[in-house]
Amino acid sequence: MVKNWVKQPQWIALAIASFLFLGALGLWRSRHSNTYTQGVDLPYAEIEPQTIALDLPEESGRSGGLIVADVNNDDRRDFLVTKPGYLAVYDNSGEKLWVKETDIHLTGKAESQGLPGLHAAGVQVGDLDRDGNAEVLFLNSNNILHVVRGDTGETQQRITLTSPEGARHWEHLVIANFRGEGDRDLLLQATNALGYRMGRYLAAYAIEDLLGADNPQPLWTRDDFIANAHNGARLADLDNDGKHEVLGAIAVSPDGEISVKLPVKGHIDALSVADVRPDLPGLEVVALEEDGDNRVFLYNGDRLLWQTHYKYQEPQNTAVGEFDPDRPGLEIWARSRYNEDQKPFIFDANGELIGEYEMANVAPRGWTLRGVEVIFPIHWTGERRELAAAKERHRSGDVALFEPMSGKFVLRIRERADRLYVADVSGDWREEIIVLDGNRLRVYQNPDPNPNPDRPSLWTQDHYRRSKTNWNYYNP
């Protein structure tokens, strides 16, 4: 009977098919177990963080975020955390200054919900009237600009704004310097009300007009800004003239005129500002294109310097920094948007490809197959070479530091990070890893001695201050 069964061709075919199916199923399970099972063996770091229990609801979704700024004028950076319906402020030591239950305008996906977008805090901090006290500014969903005192949260003014035709209301705000008088101006931005939403509407105001005039008039407006998708406009003084440009796929001068326009075919997904080319005056802008030719652009205040691509694959997120001190200028790290097994690639300051690798070969064992997200360059060691900080992608997970050039992970922290933020809050110019987990804030500081303690604070750099108070998921 057995011999007769084995000799039947249909049973042989079924046995082979079953064997192949079970093998494929095992392979699929291995590949889709959500984490790398054959990754690098990297133990968790034992760093005791500063932990701050926040007087906020634990649920946050993907709306709201955090920034640091000096709100109580003690020359130390304090923590501002936003969640839908709440704004909380804690001082540098972790003491609660105030929590405000309020209608602060926050969103998730900017392309469908408008700005400020995923993980964006939606707040700005500055001494608007030069009285020595910081103010906190935010918008609500009814087109009202709120101005509150930084150290107490006391409301000082509520200003009703007029939104542009074609937009629902103003959604994003950035303190700016358009007139060369310091942080005395305000940029407002809004997306189109219908269709795929991008921040095409801009209005620049003198803050004293907004605060004091009965009918404040803008310094200038535009309804054709080619914005980053998913992101608010970025600001920087590219040409060192003491005034800010507004940056996206076009650069808008301090007086509202277009100075640079990129030949984009799709849209800009992410944008970073840095001194990429120290051989040139001023700063440069790295912009990543989605769709079209999926290019990486470098431009300054005058012109497009170069454009390139990596096999026409989308460079979805980027980190720009001194990743290889032996090379002139800064390096530009980007990663593909693959849903699993990302493939980072690196360009030098002249747009030449200088590195590429697969995340599967460098990620720690147990790290999500989806790779990394919220990628910050970070001055962690105190040496000239920078690292990159990131969290596990698409989940509340671990945080790690890695070497962008090689992909080597050098530090892993067991976490449940909903938000990741990087900034110098200790005051030794190195940067800390700041994690928001539900209603807990944790600050991780490098416990090793700083080998170069006399370097100037990063906060003295205007473009650093702008990036740390105006960021979201796509643009750390």
From TrEMBL:
The keyword Thylakoid does not apply. Residues 230-466 form the Rhamnogalacturonan lyase family 11 C-terminal domain. InterPro entries: FG-GAP, Integrin_alpha_N, RGL11, RGL11_C. Pfam families: FG-GAP_3, RGL11_C. Keywords: Signal. The keyword Signal applies. This is Rhamnogalacturonan lyase family 11 C-terminal domain-containing protein.
